[in-house]
Amino acid sequence: MPNPTQTAVLLKSQNIRHVRLYDADQAMLMALADSGIQVTVTVPNQQLLAIAQSNTTASNWVSRNILPHISTTNITAISVGNEVLTTTPNAATVLVTALKYIHFALVSAGLDSQIKVSTTHSSNIVLDAFPPSQAFFNKTWDPVMIPLLEFLQTTGSYLMINVYPYYDYKQANGAIPLDYALFRPLPEDKEAVDLNTLLHYTNVFDAVVDAAYFAMKYLNYTNIPIVVTESGWPSKGDSSEPDATLDNANTYNSNLIKHVLNNTGTPKHPGVGISTYIYELYNEDLRPGSVSERNWGLFDANGRPIYTLNLMDSGSVLANDTTGQTYCVVKKDADKKMVQAALDWACGPGKVNCSMMLQGGPCYQPDTVVAHATYAFDTYYQQMNKAEGTCDFNGVASITTTDPSLGDCILPRSGGSNGTTTNNAPSLAPSANSTTSGGVLISDSVCISRLVGVLLWSTVAFL
């Protein structure tokens, strides 16, 4: 996994302007210094009980984790815990106290106008979520939610909620159409209609967000904005997760970004942008659990995009949006003898520099004819400026949008030293075992979370 310095370089190369960290990692905060990137840090759940004991404990936490960095690192929010009500219920009774103590420490330091304080929630705390107008928070948590909402309203903060249409779709056992979860267009007669309000819902994301708005309204809070602190779709799954695919992940995140950046809003609040963090920045190869748990990232552990984000219609693109970027690779099941002959031609008459594939070179491994031919074919294709007919090689090659680079073997024009692509497009503002993954925010700029998340700030961000 890239270290904090490498991660900061990646964020800046991607024009990501907001990030969310799942802790307050000192090395990461130092790496983000003087970057201008807006940072949300997190008080880990295991520290809540201690912080809620006294103002002094909270003040010490702020002194250790915020004050040394605030002059150079643009810290704009603190999440006190992450999904506390559903993952650490023993700390629920002290949650609001912990928020108040952290906020008081910021007031004492003169930072309360710069740094907002809130806490993230799983959307599971909202019950009876459809139709959204009937939604309400789990009443078990009313003793927490009512004072929490009062605190958010009083301090001008926002409700943080994690929204995962993938899990809603998966757990619905066919009741939710895949297109509805992926923001794909639906015929009007297939749209979900809230019969109490006659509002039409064309996607799960909007329905969940509006359910949270209505749940706050049920408790008589109507002016607290929502920030979606996690949302995404896994690009790979096991046999029980057939819809965790590259195509679906690409479709969901691309459509989510367009939806947020267009300031579509939700049916309840049309035109009111929903700032959203994309979960997450990196795949987490060592995370336990199902295959999908390790494959939510926009980038792999080497900083290369996992898939193409198709954002052209939004007017803004992430630097890892390689729309229009294509590669030449060996066709699946191509005859190996024909592949070898084409490889020989590429390294000979084709004038491809094949020294990178010699033993000891960065493209020697894997030492297979397919891997070597892919390097040679794509190099030739790129050298010929992708001219028509330059990715054929007697029928054993085909064009793809998936970067075939492996390890240290970075194919020509597939990116810089970290494997990412760059462009001059406008910026977007938009986890577990490693503090170097994160989220991205979608906003009028882009954001990131865990080690790093990306936010779509009425616009888009990343985690």
UniProtKB/TrEMBL annotation:
GO cellular component, one term: side of membrane
Protein name: glucan endo-1,3-beta-D-glucosidase
Keywords: Cell membrane, Disulfide bond, Glycoprotein, Glycosidase, GPI-anchor, Hydrolase, Lipoprotein, Membrane, Plant defense, Signal
GO terms for biological process, alphabetical: carbohydrate metabolic process; defense response
Membrane topology reported for the UniProt record: Lipid-anchor; GPI-anchor
Subcellular localization(s) per the UniProt record: Cell membrane
Family under the similarity heading: Belongs to the glycosyl hydrolase 17 family.
One Pfam entry name: X8
EC class: hydrolase
Every X8 domain range: 326-411
Gene3D superfamilies the record matches: 1.20.58.1040, Glycosidases
EC number(s) on file: 3.2.1.39
Catalytic activity: Hydrolysis of (1->3)-beta-D-glucosidic linkages in (1->3)-beta-D-glucans
